[in-house]
Amino acid sequence: MATNVQYVTLGIDKETFAVPVVRVQEILELTPVARLPHAPPYLLGMIDVRSQGVPVIDLRAKLGLGAIEDTLDTRIIVLTAEIGGKDMVLGLKADRVFEVTGLDDDKLEPPPEIGVRWHSDTIEGVGRRSGKFVTVLDLTGMFAVGDLSADLVPVDSLA
């Protein structure tokens, strides 16, 4: 029997990405971000979520895509990601959020092997929705231990 995994689908540029809905806590309209000095380019800063500081990652920058101006559709997806063996809370800034949905087939195709070195550690797999490709992000691979600070907000502190 199919497991019917649900995903939150989001748009970056003309592409559709997805994260497992079980990881998503909330989706926020764009809010002011407190900048952090000497942060890497993809770490925009911090926002307040229920009186807790949550780091915000610019998904465009993290995926190596060029910057654009924010729009009325820009959203911050607050979710948990396993970083260094612990679930941490962070926000992902995306151009837009589409829907919560399943994919056409529960099986994901692995990231393509094309014989050159590239950052496939950010991709869990590729699925399809209504005949179009959807790239499912690997949150654990995207935020490896050395990549983000070890002092991000643990999930249990946002109770």
Order of helices and strands: EEEEEHEEEEEHE
State the helicity in percent bands: under 10%
Low-confidence stretches: 149-155
CATH superfamily heading? CheA-289, Domain 4
What is the C-alpha radius of gyration, as a whole number of Å?
Answer: 15 Å
CATH overall fold name: OB fold (Dihydrolipoamide Acetyltransferase, E2P)
How would you sum up the major sheet?
A: 6 strands, mixed
User: What's the pLDDT, averaged over the residues?
Assistant: 84
- Estimated share of beta-strand residues: over 45%
Number of helices: 2
Structural class: mainly beta
Shape: globular
Structural commentary:
This protein is mainly beta and 159 residues long. The protein has a single domain, classed as CheA-289, Domain 4 (OB fold (Dihydrolipoamide Acetyltransferase, E2P)), CATH 2.40.50. Helices cover 5% and strands 46% of the residues. It has two helices and eleven strands; from the N terminus they run βββββαβββββαβ. The strands form two sheets. Strands 3, 4, 5, 6, 7 and 11 form a six-stranded mixed β-sheet that branches. Strands 8-1-2-10-9 form a five-stranded mixed β-sheet. β1 and β2 form a beta hairpin. It is globular, with a radius of gyration of 15 Å. It starts with 5 loop residues before the first strand and ends in a 5-residue tail after the last strand. About 4% of the residues have low confidence.
List the helices and strands and how they pair.
Layout: E1 6-12, E2 15-20, E3 24-29, E4 43-49, E5 52-58, H1 59-62, E6 75-83, E7 86-94, E8 96-102, E9 123-129, E10 132-137, H2 139-142, E11 153-154
Parallel strand pairs: 2-10, 5-7
Antiparallel strand pairs: 1-2, 1-8, 3-6, 4-5, 6-7, 7-11, 9-10
